[in-house]
Amino acid sequence: MQLERYSLRAIPDSFRKSVIVNGTKKLWRNDEGFAIMGMSSF
After folding, report:
1. Average pLDDT of the chain?
2. Cα angle 27, 15, 28; round to 5
3. Is residue 39 classed as helix, strand or coil in its secondary structure?
4. What tens digit of pLDDT does each residue of 1-42 get?
5. What are the beta bridge partners of residue 20?
6. CA dist list (Å): 19 to 14, 24, 28
7. pTM
8. Is the Cβ–Cβ distance between 20 and 4 less than 8 Å?
9. Cα 1 from chain centroid (whole Å)
10. How would you write 8-37 as a 3-class SS string?
């Protein structure tokens, strides 16, 4: 998941950034403000 966050950090805009992962992980936000959630929550 580190690679996904690296590429999102390089985008210089104010859009919300989301990382969708396989599984049933509930929505949470990391320290950088990225929304991370499982496919079932998406």
Report:
1. 82
2. 15
3. coil
4. 566 677 777 777 777 888 888 988 899 998 888 899 999 877
5. 37
6. 16, 13, 10
7. 0.63
8. no
9. 9
10. HHCCCCCCCCEEEECCCCCCEECCCCCEEE
